[in-house]
UniProtKB/TrEMBL annotation, chain A:
It comes from the Bacteria. PANTHER family: ABC TRANSPORTER ATP-BINDING PROTEIN, TAURINE IMPORT ATP-BINDING PROTEIN-RELATED. GO terms for molecular function: ATP binding. Keywords: ATP-binding, Lipoprotein, Nucleotide-binding, Transport. It holds the Pfam family ABC_tran. It comes from Winogradskya humida. This is Sulfonate ABC transporter ATP-binding lipoprotein. InterPro entries: AAA+_ATPase, ABC_transporter-like_ATP-bd, ABC_transporter-like_CS, ABC_transporter_ATP-bind, P-loop_NTPase.
UniProtKB/TrEMBL annotation, chain B:
It comes from Winogradskya humida. Belongs to the binding-protein-dependent transport system permease family. The chain crosses the membrane at residues 67-98, 110-134, 146-166, 199-220, 249-270. It is found in: Cell membrane. This is ABC transporter permease. Keywords: Cell membrane, Membrane, Transmembrane, Transmembrane helix, Transport. Residues 75-271 form the ABC transmembrane type-1 domain. Signal peptide: none annotated. The keyword Transmembrane applies. It is a multi-pass membrane protein.
Length: 255, 286
């Protein structure tokens, strides 16, 4: 079974109007369980649209999207995925603890279950001591870690991330990348990760999917064969730079 | 403690301004090119603060109850009507805002009328509502004058709540709405978990405005319907004696001001427990 299967998907916004935009054209993508796939491409290439289609936040104009063998809508209703956006999007009136609890609350889990699961998640992202803080009291990097904890709280088999580290500084970004890989390895979660950054995509992924705009389509995929666990040594290795070059060339060719 | 001090300082400054103008202002007012630009500063127009205060202690009419008692009981009477109007208005405003958020078409259809409703002059509206008194009853209870006043008060106070609350309900970032959708939460749960809490920073300023509007509505409503027993009526009665007893009407105005303060205070009390997260803002960096 595949974690995600996107087949012949096209997405046209404002169809039939003068401002009609073809965001995606005939896209196919499959993600294996436990695989980490990055979507990369220039602005307007439809990578966020593709992520939203998989999340069933929008419905494709044509084609089919399946998550964990279920149609996208059923998968959403069953909470088969967790999602994190560029803005951490924490609820400012809830403490860190209660933010992470939110998806569990909506699933109708008992208080005790929620408590233990949240404690586990905050431990995972290293924020146990900040459970009772409010989001406004945390730095951007910490907020994003809370968002990741929230996305993983229901133990979804799939994690969808839309430029989650886009607004962070380089240092925090690299630290969170390492943390994210560790978390995904530990939980066995499949991940689709949208990014602008070539090095981020290469460092994180088993496979980098290169997209091009107008209309958005997949122009190349690059398998990234780097040792794991990926650490600082990997970041410095010739193989890493080779992979970066490969992806860069693919992006150039697509543009 | 510091707040209490600033309240005292504020009062002292106001008294100083009043008495200061009385001391230096022209008793007949300052007239420039035939227009009075500064008010008269004589005892008839601007009685001394201590005259007003001492007037509270003396009887309303010879042998009657002291003025402070009359003002206090009138203020309490109007407070009851104001509270009723305020709560009714806030509930109506809330329901309208939720309906407008839920259905785009309701927003488009209703919002112009909501705004239009506030341009109808109050004095035109009051007799209209008062006219219900003969035709309406709740079972055995006939329509009362104070109900008219409460309706006017509610009519003025629903508006800021409806507009402010609509803004608040629409305030969540799209990522928050998408997040709720990703949790398979429907409209109702999105409302309860996301939109309502997110709207609180918009709701409280709106409630403050609504509180002030409810007081104005109640006072003006009492005056224009001739309802007895409230502070509006008292202001009207006392102002008739303004030439012989100028300090008296100011005691009633102090009562009305007090009423406004009490309502504003009640809204603040409501706000304290609900807005805890706004108070602690020290950012932890690591």
């Amino acid at each position: 079974m595949t974690a995600v299967s996107v087949q012949a998907v096209s997405q046209i916004f404002n169809q039939g109007h003068t401002d009609e935009v073809t965001a995606l054209s005939d896209v196919d993508l499959t993600v294996a369980p436990g695989e980490f796939v990055s979507l990369i491409g220039p602005s307007g290439c439809g990578k966020s649209t593709l992520l939203r289609l998989i999340a069933d936040l929008i419905t494709p104009t044509s084609g089919t999207v399946e998550v964990n063998g279920k149609p996208a809508e059923k998968a959403r209703l069953d909470q088969e995925y967790g999602i994190a956006f560029q803005q951490a999007g924490l609820f400012e009136w809830r403490t860190v603890q209660r933010n992470v609890e939110l998806p569990l609350e909506l699933r109708g889990q008992s208080r005790a279950e929620r408590r233990s699961r949240t404690a586990e998640m905050l431990e995972l992202v290293g924020l146990t001591d900040f459970a009772r803080h409010y989001p406004a009291q945390l730095s951007g990097g910490m907020q994003q870690r809370v968002a990741i904890a929230r996305a993983l709280a229901v133990h979804p088999p799939l994690l969808l991330m839309d430029e989650p580290f886009g607004a962070l500084d380089e240092m925090t970004r690299e630290r969170l990348q390492t943390e994210l890989l560790a978390i995904c390895a530990k939980t066995g979660t499949s991940t689709i990760f949208v990014t602008h950054s070539i090095s981020e995509a290469v460092f994180l992924s088993n496979r980098v999917v290169v997209m091009s705009p107008r209309p958005g389509r997949i122009t190349a995929t690059a398998d990234i064969d780097l040792p794991s666990p990926r650490d600082e040594a990997v970041r410095q290795s010739p193989a890493f730079f080779d992979a970066v070059t490969t992806v860069r060339k693919a992006l150039r060719a697509a543009a | 403690m510091r707040r209490a001090l600033s309240v005292v300082i504020g009062l002292v400054v106001m008294v100083a301004l009043w008495e200061g103008y009385k001391a230096v202002g022209n008793p007949d007012g300052t007239v420039l090119f035939g227009t009075r630009v500064l008010p008269r500063a004589d005892d008839l127009s601007m009685p001394h603060v201590w005259d007003m205060l001492s007037r509270f202690g003396r009887p309303e009419l010879t042998g009657g109850r002291p003025v402070w008692q009359a003002v206090l009981s009138a203020t309490l009477f109007t407070l009851g009507i104001t509270a009723l109007g305020f709560v009714a208005g806030a509930v109506v405003g809330l329901v309208l805002a939720i309906a407008m958020q839920r259905f785009r078409i309701v927003e488009r259809g209703l919002l112009p009328y909501v705004i239009l409703s506030q341009t109808v002059p109050l004095v035109a509206l009051a007799p209209l509502i008062a006219g219900w008194s003969g035709n309406l009853s709740f079972g055995a209870y006939p329509w009362q004058d104070w109900m008219t006043v409460a309706v006017i008060s509610a009519y003025l106070s629903f508006f800021p709540v409806a507009v402010g609350m609509l803004r608040g309900l629409q305030s969540p970032h799209v990522s928050g709405v998408e997040l709720m959708r990703s949790y398979a939460a429907g409209w109702w749960r999105t409302l309860v978990k996301l939109r309502l809490p997110a709207s609180l920073p918009y709701l409280f300023p709106a409630l403050r405005l609504a509180g002030a509007a409810a007081v104005v509505g109640a006072v003006v409503g009492e005056i224009s319907t001739g309802t007895r027993g409230g502070i509006g009526r008292l202001i009207l009665e006392y102002s008739r004696e303004a030439t012989s007893d100028p300090a008296k009407v100011y005691t009633a105005m102090v009562g009305a001001a007090l009423l406004g303060l009490v309502v504003a205070g009640l809204v603040s009390l409501l706000e304290l427990p609900l807005m805890r997260h706004r108070r602690r803002v020290t950012v932890v960096t690591m």
